[in-house]
Design brief:
Blueprint (H helix, E strand, L loop, with lengths): L1 E4 L2 E5 L3 E6 L6 E7 L14 H17 L7 E4 L15 E5 L9
């Protein structure tokens, strides 16, 4: 499992991979995606607990590497149609690098 920033590897992991985006919703925007095909959080099972917890550890590690730990960052996981999920493979958006507003519209 590999997290990458265009061409350069950032971190190697086992169950999860992470994709670093350019300037999308914020100066730093990356996804944390499990290799296991879980369509959405509400479809996960108790057997997925290790993967879901590992995803949070990956968020922390990549956020540290991208310099977000001190200033903070936001996690977004859309679930289902009313949650605006458009890609039906579970993933976490991590955005940061600037002051974020609320609501996140």
């Amino acid at each position: 499992c590999v997290a990458f920033d265009d061409i350069n590897p950032v971190v190697f992991l086992n169950l999860i991979f992470s994709i670093i985006f350019g300037n999308h919703k914020a100066p730093v925007h990356f996804l944390v995606i499990p290799r296991k095909p879980i369509t959405q959080l509400s479809k996960s099972t108790d057997d997925d607990e290790k993967i879901l917890g590992h995803m949070m550890c990956v968020v922390r590690k990549v956020a540290e590497q991208k310099g977000l730990s001190e200033s903070g960052y936001r996690l977004v996981m859309n679930n289902g149609r009313h949650g605006c999920q458009s890609v039906y493979h579970l993933h976490i958006h991590v955005i940061g690098g600037r002051q974020l507003g609320w609501p996140p519209c």
